[in-house]
Design goal:
elongated; 268 residues; 7% strand; Arc Repressor Mutant, subunit A
Length: 268
Amino acid sequence: MTHVNVRLTTRYTVVDNRLLQHRELSLTAIGLAGHIQSLPTGARVDIRSLTARFPEGEVRIAAALRELEAQGYLARTRERLPNGRVVSRTVSYNRPTGAEEVREVTPPPEPARAPAPRPDRPHPPSAPPPRPPKPPKPSLPKPADSAPDPRHTATTLLSRLHHDDPRLLLPEREVRRLAPAVDAWLERGASPEAVRRALTSCLPAEPLRHPAGLLAHRLTEHLPPPPPPAPPRPLPFQDCDGCDRPFRAAEPGRCRDCRTHQPLPRAA
């Protein structure tokens, strides 16, 4: 491949190569991130507006937005206006930083330098060594029973963690993502108070840049073992039809002694 580059002075956007060469993002997500970063502040980037702009359907665009959220390039929150209307706020990051906002700083211009003399035989720049692939992150635990908790214990527990530490105030989408992992803990016999202590105790003193990531790590790495299987229940007592003596059996009938001494039926 050969590049033919023209120096741009107007109508251009600086995009980080770590986004364009991201190994865990789809091509649709990378292109959508570049488009969003090129838009001015205040532009609409909801699914309906993006679907009207591009030939991809709502399913692919929604999936691409979720990819960008998972990698920290987007943050979407829902806010209620004074008139009662609920709107979505989207924040785009040119470098993934989680929920923290990054101020764009313009570097000072470099002083003019005299052109360096050309060597007779320039040495080609050595290529950087390839980076080893990152191991995949362990997936969050899920409960064996996929039915949702009717009491909403998991979502209530996660939504109230900021009462223990204000840094653990989670957006709604992170509460929904982590709730099945909390259900897995509850299913294995952990009480809500035990889950709360496991998530809020011994937190680091420095600022939490990714509180949801810290909680996901603790829910995954400290998952308690499943409870042992319950012992089989004994058979119920039955009254023997022959001697009225109680014995254990699945259905009414005769005890073992009566069955042993019961005469065989005569042949006709």
